[in-house]
Amino acid sequence: MNHIKTLILHTGAAFTAALVVCAPAMLATPAAAEAQAQNEVDRAIAALRAVSTMQASFTQTDASGRRATGTVTLRRPGRIRFQYAPGIPMLIVSDGAALTFVDYETRQVQRWPIKSSPLGALLDPNRDVAKFGRLIESGDANWVTVEVRDRSHPEYGVITLRFLRKGSAPGGLELMGWTALDSQNRQTLIQLSGQRYGMAVSDRMFRYNDPRGPSHR
């Protein structure tokens, strides 16, 4: 269980970081290449903004290959929940203001502001993702990869989002996962599958039972 906690804590810390997109083809001039890259970043941002609600399965893997699984639920603006599989007494949830990590085994709660986190690229409608995002070339025209990094806050780390071109997905791009690298160079991979969109999601989904007791609620 300790390695699962370490894996999840590293992910939570890396969330308080920064975004990458991949150009499908080489262009003739630096100016044209830069314009194409910016177009791809803008399209990825538009695809994220086009998601009102989403639910998907996720697999979380650390640099040592250790894994945890669960279900992620997103509702814009500002709300997300990572519900881990039975047997993992952890939860990551955002209520629209802060990202909260809950450890029910040790009764600990940690919080990070969304607006200072790379996860704000998914959640914060006021976040200027284009300011921190850049396109990364992968060599596969089916994929768009965007790295978001706030260079004025290296302690936030780096997050690289991966999109698959898919006509039926919001904005024509489906978020397939991301890689988070924290300020200690610890890497966590999140892979999504079975994405569904547009379902009703109650406010209750983004609340949690505080293990520290009633005085903290």
Number of strands: 11
CATH topology: outer membrane lipoprotein receptor (LolB), chain A
- Poorly predicted regions are 13-27
CATH C-level class: Mainly Beta
Query: Helical amount among residues, as a percent range?
Result: 10-25%
Main sheet attributes: strand count, strand direction, barrel closure: 11 strands, antiparallel
> What is the annotated CATH architecture?
Clam
Order of strands side by side in the largest beta sheet?
6-5-4-3-2-1-11-10-9-8-7
What's the number of structural domains?
A: 1
Terminal CA distance:
26 Å
Mass-distribution shape:
globular
- Provide the structure class: alpha+beta
Radius of gyration (CA) equals 17 Å
Order of helices and strands: HHEEEEEEHHEEEEE
What does it look like?
With 217 residues, this protein is α+β, with helices and mostly antiparallel strands. It has a single domain (2-209), classed as Lipoprotein localisation LolA/LolB/LppX (outer membrane lipoprotein receptor (LolB), chain A, Clam). 19% of the residues lie in helices and 37% in strands. It has an eleven-stranded antiparallel β-sheet. The longest helix has 20 residues, at 30-49. The chain is globular.
Q: Quick summary of this structure?
A:
With 217 residues, the protein is α+β, with helices and mostly antiparallel strands. The chain contains 4 helices and 11 strands.
